[in-house]
Amino acid sequence: MDGTTASSTQLLRQINSGALLRFALQEQVFTAGEAMGATGLTRATVLGVCDGLVDAGWLEEVTDGGEAGRAPKGRPARRYQLREAAGVVVGLDAGEGHLTTIVADLRGRELAKRRQSIDSHALGRAGRVAGAQELIHQALADVGCDSGDVLLTVVGVPAPVDADGRSPGAGEFWQLMNSGFDQHLEGAVTIENDANLAAIAEQAQEPSANVATLLSGERFGAGLIVDGRLLRGRRGGAGEMRFLDILSDSKLEPEEGTSDGFGALARKWARTLVRSYEGDTSLRRIPEEDINAEDVFQAAREGDALARDIIARLGTRLARIAVVLSSLLDIERVVIAGGISRAIEPVLEHARTLLPANSGLPLPDLVASTFGAEAVVHGAIESALTQFRRDPTAFLPRTTRP
Inter-axis angle of helices 43-56 and 3-26, to 10 degrees? Predict the structure, then answer.
């Protein structure tokens, strides 16, 4: 067999192995006949590839002696299933003030989850990486795994990320957030922008051709799906909200920063306005430096006039953003994600009343994410699973334990 023939044979075997593995991920126990019907491969090819996947550690043959799946002549059909110990995937949301990780099996079932608060500016890049390593190890240990079981880790960071997992060097904050996780976490590692991962999570839950997912807690970023595809940009800057500089109104929105999310703005505006507010407000009962977004939203629910004014200002800001995204990208749905999403409905209600009714184009739906604070980490798991399904043979299963 010459080199060209051998290479072609190897490539064909790899393609067939990938097809069988993708089928196995969708099934619990399957026979060669069922695999033939799903993949279009011959019986001999299916049996040969399955034997190879068993030897490699991806599949295991089921020998429980059950009657299911008998061959036409009464001979028990060979039955296979995905080997659960082949490996796991890990998602990590490496935010500015928290780390959240999920360990999932290769079918996407959540096995373990851990979360901890951090001070990124005190920890620095090395401290963020060390904290992530420890949190992931703890989550793996919760289900009897270790780093050798991890096939792929996807990390979400609050910074633009290019195709190589790098962030623009000009931003000191971006370099702190994108701390070099791909160089220090074990196994294959992918770095992605956190808002993009939130968009991936939303897309997996409710597919839409044109949707913007806004992460808007402390910082503002957008994951943009246009014509069914995630927009990134050459330097990973698609979804950065720099246009808010032009749209901002300093008289209406005091102490506003373009990167500030709704949570940060609610806190800043409350602390600023409570000083000069002439009416009665329950926010004065809280020390000014302790007022947070949750206090503002709670006060608004109780009818506090100052808090309701802040909610209205947030709604005005959201309506502007929705109009810009709809006009430029024909966005049909805007999703508010992150921890703030649990309380954002009053802001959405106000924003809906401000959307122009005579624009000539359908207005985008404004909705809150159901993932709460876990949109990014769920998107990281979905991204890891997508990469694995695309080319499972690019990974090596765990075959032995120490």
Answer: 80
